[in-house]
Every structure is written in structure tokens, then in C-alpha cells.
TrEMBL record:
Name of this protein: Phytanoyl-CoA dioxygenase
């Protein structure tokens, strides 16, 4: 059931687990330290409503935090059983959203902010902009995206948004963009036109769903899913001063030219 849902919908939520809860409780304390660290001030954007927090948590390559429990639970078991070994994990991203989100990001155009507000800033992770014309290419080909909530919030506190089934539309679009190009040159391919057309198709044909979870739970998203973050709801709740805190692991595929488009 879980594997079928993941392959068809592009995401999967896992029930509360004591091991996952232990990791999240420990990570929450370190997350609070990371947000307060003056060295991380540049990560607070969108007029103070989004802490981007890339590589903000000091976990080791197994995902374990200093003096904390191992990274474990049903989500980790599913990944290792159905997708493959975790490999060496990067330092987790700490995504924190505060009341009032979204507000314009520093340097963001009116059109870009409108897309953030009206389309949840929908994107596929690893597809980056380059050049003054804001073209796109694949620079960070991820294996999967794992979200681990660190504090309890209401479902309307800027949850993850996923367009179900979008991974297959995006897969076809990237395959078309790379057609006839040697795999070792894929990193240089301008995918803008294919990517933009595929996003439009996704918005027209795929259900938009919000994915909410509490500490101890987890969710896994397919690497090619179009996804974003919903606005903070008018009546949304989160612990005072903390905002909505989620840790994300998004390891990159070392051999992405042979797996990124073809793996389930």
C-alpha cells in the first residue's frame, strides 16, 4: 500500500514512531539554537517570515545529532528497503515559517512574489536559476526528500504542498529536454521551456494537496514532485516564537545520469 501510494502520488506520510520522535525532540533544541545564531542571520528572508536554514543542523553523515539518538523510524526503513541505502547524508535543512508568510523575498520581483503567494512557489528541488535571464538547469539532482516535523502546529501553519502525480509529468519533461544529449552533459542543458510547460500541465491536471505532520511522524516526497509551501493561515497556530519547524534531508544522487530519471 505504501509503495503503491508513493509511486502513484509522489509522496507518503508515515505514522508516529518513538524513534522518530526521539530524533525530532533532540533536533528541536538544536534548531532553536540555529535560528538564534547570529551567523545564520542571512537565512531569515521574506521579511522575517522564512528561515531557509540550508545545512543548519549539525548532524553526522548517518543523520545523528551530537549526543542524540540515531535517525530511525518507518520512513528510514522504507527508504532503505524500497529505494536504496541512505548513503552519507548532508547536514539537514531547517525550514522555519513564521506568521505572515509569504512576504516578498529580498530582491524578488512582483511577478515572482505573485507566484510565491498564488502558486506556493511551486518547484522541483535541484532545478536552479542561472544567468540574468533566469533560465534553469538541473544542478542538484536529489534522491528523495524527507521531512521531519520538529514542533506541533495546526494543519494550516504553512504546510508542504504537493501536486499528486506531478513527478511523472516532470519526468517526461526532463527526459524530453535531455533527449539526444550525452548524460555527462545534462548538467549544462537549459530545461526552462520544458520545465515551465510541465508546471503548467501539472497545475491544470494534478490535485494540489497539503501535507501536514506532527513530531514523531514523517513524510517522504519523490525527487521529481512539484511542490511548495502554502501561506500561513489566518488562524494557524504554532509554539510561541518558534514558527513551524521542519528538518529536511535531500541527499544528492552521485550517479544521477543513470538513476534520476529512471528510478521509481
Amino acid at each position: 500500500m505504501g509503495l503503491d501510494h508513493y509511486r502513484a502520488k509522489g509522496w507518503l506520510r508515515f505514522p508516529a514512531d518513538a524513534g522518530t520522535m526521539a530524533w525530532s525532540e533532540h533536533a528541536r533544541v538544536l534548531a532553536q539554537d540555529a535560528v538564534a545564531d547570529p551567523a545564520h542571520a542571512a537565512w531569515l528572508d521574506c521579511e522575517g517570515t522564512w528561515f531557509i536554514g540550508v545545512d543548519a543542523l549539525p548532524n553526522d553523515p548517518a543523520g545523528q545529532l551530537a549526543d542524540g539518538p540515531p535517525l530511525q523510524g518507518p520512513a528510514i526503513d522504507f527508504i532503505t528497503r524500497q529505494i536504496g541505502p541512505l548513503g552519507a547524508l548532508h547536514r539537514a535543512q531547517l525550514s522555519v515559517i513564521y506568521p505572515g508568510y509569504p512576504r516578498p523575498r529580498q530582491g524578488e520581483s512582483t511577478a515572482a512574489f505573485g507566484y510565491r503567494r498564488n502558486r506556493d512557489a511551486a518547484h522541483v528541488d535541484g532545478v536552479k536559476m542561472f544567468g540574468s535571464d533566469r533560465r534553469r538547469r538541473v544542478e542538484e539532482p536529489h534522491a528523495w526528500v524527507l521531512g521531519l516535523p520538529l514542533n506541533a502546529t495546526s494543519p494550516d501553519a504553512a504546510p508542504l504542498v504537493v501536486w499528486e502525480g506531478s513527478h511523472e509529468i516532470m519526468r517526461a519533461a526532463f527526459a524530453a529536454a535531455f533527449a539526444g544529449v550525452a548524460p555527462e552533459d545534462w548538467h549544462a542543458v537549459d530545461v526552462t521551456d520544458s520545465y515551465t510547460a510541465a508546471r503548467r500541465e501539472v497545475f491544470e491536471t494534478c490535485p494540489r494537496v497539503t501535507v501536514h505532520a506532527q513530531p514523531g511522524e514523517a513524510y517522504l516526497m519523490h525527487r521529481l514532485c512539484l511542490h511548495g509551501v502554502a501561506p500561513w493561515g489566518d488562524d494557524a497556530t504554532a509554539p510561541a516564537g518558534e514558527g513551524r519547524m521542519i528538518a529536511y534531508f535531500r541527499p544528492e544522487l552521485a550517479d544521477w545520469q543513470t538513476r534520476w530519471l529512471t528510478d521509481p
